[in-house]
Amino acid sequence: MIKKILISSFLLLSLATFAQQGSASPYSFYGIGEVRFKGTVENRAMAGIGLEKDSIHINLENPASYAGLKLTTFTIGGTQSSNTLKNSTTSESANRTTIDYLAVGLPLGKFGLGFGLIPYSSVGYRISSTSSEIEGVNTEYSGSGGLNKAFVGLGYAVAKGLSIGADINYNFGRIEATSIAAINDVPYGTTELNRADLSGVNFNFGAMYEHKIGKKLNAYGSLYYSLENSLTSTNIRSVSTFFADSGIDTFDLQESSKKLSYPSKITMSAGVGEARRWLVGAKLAYQENPGEANEYNSAANVGYGRYATASVGGYYIPNYNSFTSYFKRIVYRGGIRFEKTGLVVNSESIDDKAITLGMGLPLPGTYSNLNLGLEIGQRGSTKGGLVQQDYINISVGFSFNDKWFQKRKFD
What we know:
Keywords: Signal. This is Long-chain fatty acid transport protein. By secondary structure, the protein is mostly beta strands. The protein has helices spanning about 1-20, 40-45, 290-295, and strands at about 35, 70-85, 90-110, 110-130, 135-160, 160-185, 190-210, 215-225, 230-245, 245-260, 265-275, 280-285, 300-305, 305-315, 330-345, 350-360, 370-380, 390-400. The longest helix is centred in the first third of the chain and has 18 residues, at about 1-20. The protein starts with a helix and ends in a 9-residue tail after the last strand.
């Protein structure tokens, strides 16, 4: 059964990854769009904390974790996002439903293999301005698309408590941006379409360590390093004039190609807990200013700085092997996150902060589970004439587990 689910889901996600518009944020205009969270619903519900080498859950944030898998694991997750966009005078609402990831993990002795697909960034905005004045200018800006990652990673258990890993990502996607301008009482207007086809490869390395510090307590550490990498952006720009009574006339078409270079990124996590009972941890991530990689979508009064994020989170299980109470086997998760996106508009830093909650619900009679997550956050502010984005994300993920590649004892 799991094999049929696996094949069907990969086909569906392959189509949906290209088609879905995963952002409703006006800040997705800049760079390659709004960067999505990479991990699973389980990690997201703990504000991004992923410290343990779980035997039945895939930790997409560090390939070293694959070495801890004991069962073949197939996972898929999605999010319903409700957004309120407001400035000092008006407010609008927007909703999005997205597929967040699809991945498979295979235990191979001391090795562990993981592979799958992740939408990495999303572009989705529509901004219009109208004028009632004679010869007033009416404009509309819209964008869609994003960047996706197909990845494969390998983890290896070097010694008791220590594992290392590496993964390779093939990045691909398309971003389209359209701007329309028309003047009142003038029977024609102009349309500019910019399309960027993106592709590239990047490598990441990770290590995870677990050490017993008491009869029940364990200390956990995780290190993840993304090498400097680049994307090739193949761009097509066309400018057209549209007439009220005679259609569209395209008079300018330009093609170009550009390399977008991104600096290395380091993520460090540490925590303490009791295995299969509770865990509390913290995560820090840092990346230098990508510079011109963001500026191919340049705009006035926009700058870029360093990216950084800090989060604290964890989980609690009352009694993971209780036979008398289902609720005691539920995993309760929570966390707090603060992120500096690196984007600066009108001299205001666009920061993102959120609180997260979640539950892991065991599916009866199996090692599989249903995971739910809630994220309540805010991106940007109304200072400097900007837009504040208040969002509520409800995430659902399934983790299906089974034993593959076993010899039959009986025919």
